[in-house]
Amino acid sequence: MPSFAVILPAAGGATRFGGPVNKVLVPLGGVPLIVHALRAFLSRPDVTAVVIPTSPATGLSNSKSPELAACLRDPRVRVCAGGASRAESVKRGLAEVPTGPEWVAVHDAARPLVSQELITRTLAAAVEHGAAVGAVPIAQTVKEAEGPLPAKVFRTVQRSRLWAVQTPQIVRRRDLEAAFETCPLPLEQVTDDLQLIELARKQVWLVEGEERNLKVTTQTDLRIAEMLLGTSV
């Protein structure tokens, strides 16, 4: 398996989470949330670089956590300025990836419970097909309507072909760079990293994701992550 670099976007305002600090710095298992994601990748010898696009509002540089400080001292880690949208942050992070690695993984800083098995499975599929991401089936019935609610239902969407994608999303570096250059949409309308690859008319493959690889968006998500972490320690 080849080596790869990681982009860990952490510039969002986390407005849906609430609370006095950004969600990537809230404690989970006694350390800031982002530390779990950092450790997942820094523990791998095939990771050559981790770039964290962030903003002063996130408070990363003001954290008093010795665990986070230790991660940031790793020579593979560098911090850069993020953008106004996720895609812009990823683009800026991509520009900071050192020359060398052919493959790049983009992972949500707020997905603390990603497993080594999922990372490896996604990397293997990306190497085989060009781009890959973990996904889980949509379990709930999905209805199409034009919000905000209350709103009239247009139709019920057939969910057998619908998948909720996770991260990491792994792609050949040159393909991602080219996709940014040719993207036909404003970057604020790009909500998924591999959507750029789809827009460039290249293949994206799904691999089996993991229910425990949840993204912490709300306080409820954090409580679920605490429970899941407690079952694995």
Which short descriptors sum up this protein?
alpha/beta, seven-stranded mixed beta sheet, 7 helices, 30% helix, 24% strand, globular
Q: What would you say this structure looks like, in words?
A:
The chain is of the alpha/beta class and 233 residues long. It has a single domain (4-133, 165-230), classed as Spore Coat Polysaccharide Biosynthesis Protein SpsA, Chain A. It is built from seven helices and eleven strands. It has helices at residues 33-42, 66-73, 86-96, 116-129, 173-182, 195-199, 219-230; strands at residues 4-7, 27-28, 31-32, 47-54, 77-81, 103-106, 131-137, 142-145, 153-157, 163-172, 205-208. The strands form three sheets. A seven-stranded mixed β-sheet has the order 5-4-1-6-10-7-11, sandwiched between helices. Strands 2-3 form a two-stranded antiparallel sheet. It starts with a strand and ends with a helix. The mean pLDDT is 94.
CATH superfamily: Spore Coat Polysaccharide Biosynthesis Protein SpsA, Chain A
When the domains are counted, the total is: 1
Provide mean pLDDT, rounded: 94
Count of individual beta strands: 11
Radius of gyration: 18 Å
- CATH arch. level architecture: Alpha-Beta Complex
Largest sheet: 7 strands, mixed
Number of discrete helical segments: 7
Residue share in β-strands: 15-25%
Category from helices, strands and their pairing:
alpha/beta
Helix and strand layout, with pairings?
Layout: E1 4-7, E2 27-28, E3 31-32, H1 33-42, E4 47-54, H2 66-73, E5 77-81, H3 86-96, E6 103-106, H4 116-129, E7 131-137, E8 142-145, E9 153-157, E10 163-172, H5 173-182, H6 195-199, E11 205-208, H7 219-230
Parallel strand pairs: 1-4, 1-6, 4-5, 7-11
Antiparallel strand pairs: 2-3, 6-10, 7-10, 8-9
